[in-house]
């Protein structure tokens, strides 16, 4: 029996084909939850669904398309509905703010923010109806620390924090909790290019007080807690999982007598 109390729960995970998404799926499945793997194409999630067995369902759904989110939610509702939603899907289109195109800006907001809201509406409707549920939204330390040359990324992640807080306020009386998880530096297939150069990897590790780059499993462990009954009195919070990275700013300020 899982000490987290997740056996028999249905956890919907968006962006399930990515590095953090796959870790989330394996973690929830390992705790006895049924997992619904949502990503843009079935090719990104079917191998993982096969690995996890009968307790996994793969669904194709583009979070930039409201009709696809609704269809995926209807499919889950037909099978008993969701108990947990982990909003994890995200896109990044690099660009400086003086030249980022309206198309790229809108695309990032449509997935990173509007997609989160629509997914919360669609999958959370059943939670509200039965008076219980948990939402976990993957944001980023970029929500509070501006990430340059990243277009709408930081703005979209900052907005996720407020979206989650508003959901926590509005849906708390209905038994549904909402929290955010903000990763720092995480080594995933998408970010692997940053760590293939030993010098860059060493310099990045040196910025983190814990002196290592996070793994997707580090994020999944915190998401498990936030989604579980163990966090039954936690809502409207942002849990920063960055190894202390965001506490390092003042250490960069030159001081007499210190290197």
Automatic annotation (TrEMBL):
Entry keyword set: Oxidoreductase
PANTHER family documented for this protein: OXIDOREDUCTASE, SHORT-CHAIN DEHYDROGENASES/REDUCTASES FAMILY MEMBER
Superkingdom in the source lineage: Bacteria
Molecular functions (GO terms): oxidoreductase activity
Alphabetical list of Gene3D superfamilies matching this protein: NAD(P)-binding Rossmann-like Domain
Homology family: Belongs to the short-chain dehydrogenases/reductases (SDR) family.
CDD domains: SDR_c
Principal EC category: oxidoreductase
Ranges for domain Ketoreductase: 9-174
Protein's recorded name: SDR family oxidoreductase
InterPro entries recorded: KR_dom (IPR057326), NAD(P)-bd_dom_sf (IPR036291), Sc_DH/Rdtase_CS (IPR020904), SDR_fam (IPR002347)
SMART domains linked to this entry: PKS_KR
EC number per UniProt: 1.-.-.-
Keyword Secreted among record annotations: no
């Amino acid at each position: 029996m899982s000490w987290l109390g997740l056996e028999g729960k249905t956890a919907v995970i968006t962006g399930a084909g990515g590095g953090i998404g796959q870790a989330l799926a394996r973690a929830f499945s390992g705790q006895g939850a049924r997992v619904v793997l949502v990503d843009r194409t079935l090719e990104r999630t079917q191998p993982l669904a096969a690995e996890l067995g009968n307790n996994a369902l793969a669904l194709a759904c583009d979070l930039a398309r409201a009709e696809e989110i609704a269809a995926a939610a209807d499919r889950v509702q037909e099978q008993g509905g969701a108990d947990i939603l982990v909003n994890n899907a995200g896109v990044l289109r690099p660009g400086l703010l003086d030249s980022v195109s309206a198309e790229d800006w809108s695309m990032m907001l449509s997935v990173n923010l509007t997609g989160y809201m629509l997914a919360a509406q669609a999958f959370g409707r059943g939670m509200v109806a039965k008076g219980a549920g948990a939402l976990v939204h993957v944001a980023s330390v970029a929500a509070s620390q501006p990430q340059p040359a990243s277009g709408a990324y930081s703005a979209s992640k900052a907005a996720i924090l407020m979206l989650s807080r508003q959901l926590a306020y509005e849906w708390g009386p209905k038994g549904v909790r909402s929290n955010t998880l903000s990763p720092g530096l995480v080594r995933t297939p998408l970010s692997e290019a940053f760590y293939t150069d030993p010098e860059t990897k060493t310099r990045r590790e040196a910025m983190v007080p814990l002196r290592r780059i996070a793994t997707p499993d580090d994020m999944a462990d915190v998401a498990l807690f936030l989604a579980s009954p163990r966090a039954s009195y936690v809502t409207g919070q942002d849990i920063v999982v960055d190894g202390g990275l965001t506490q390092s700013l003042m250490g960069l300020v030159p001081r007499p007598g210190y290197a």
